[in-house]
Design a protein that fits this description.
65% of the residues lie in helices and 12% in strands. The chain is an alpha+beta fold. The protein has 2 domains: 120 residues, no CATH class; 118 residues, Alpha Horseshoe (Serine Threonine Protein Phosphatase 5, Tetratricopeptide repeat). It has a 4-stranded antiparallel β-sheet with strand order 1-2-4-3.
Amino acid sequence: MKTAIITILFVLIVPIQSLAKPIEFIKEYTYDAGETDSLLSCRTISLMEVKRLLLEELGTYLVSNTEIENYQLKKDQITVLTGGIVKTDIVNEKWNGQTYWIQASIKSDPEDVLKTIDELKRSNELDDKIEKLKEEYRNAYDQIDELKDRLAEAQRNLFELNKDYEKAQSIVSATKLLEIGIQQRMENKTTEALNSFDSGIDMNPSYILYIERGRTYINIEQFNKAIDDFNNAIKMRPGYGKAYYYKGIALIKKGNKRKGVKIVKKAAELGNHTAKLWLISKNIPY
């Protein structure tokens, strides 16, 4: 299991009584790479995590030292909004092949943040902006998980590819169908996507194919079929957080909220970033 060590540095370059100048926060984040991690995945995940910590710190500051409470926003909403307003800069980073360390900073003028939020509020776009940014964050984590999934699956298939030509062909074909199915789903070609995933599973069943087919079933509200697919994924790879996350979401959409939230919490405990973000967005502790 991957672990992350967080060191927090706080730098405030302007007195509280003066909000006309920018403030700066600096944080460090250390990520221990897993077997399938690359420099790219470590860097991407670490940057997203350190940015989240920085935005939380900025949100806390804004709540304590500005009039942002007048907008009646929750802390997670402030965090999401500031993420769409301010820029995160990498100060320093190190990678030794096993551990990735990053130091990043965020600068913000509180008056500019309040002005932007006020403009969104006046134009009745505030709630839509918050929901859009939340979805973007969840999608970003989901895309990282998908990339790591495929890397992990490729490594597991290497032995079979070298040992058995016929097996190798089925693996290659199933992988291609996985890619096609995901693209078809993105284009809202649901029937075609399901056919691609079905064929891929027939050729060479994998937990990724079951998860992606299950996600497609969620889109068309066939929740029982989706849950069956996520259960198959869990059987093939026990303890895999992503399968639990989508199973929980399917249960919630089906109407079994209590059980669904419990399973999403389990996904978060297993380290699934998307599950953590979902729980945070719903103000549910995990």
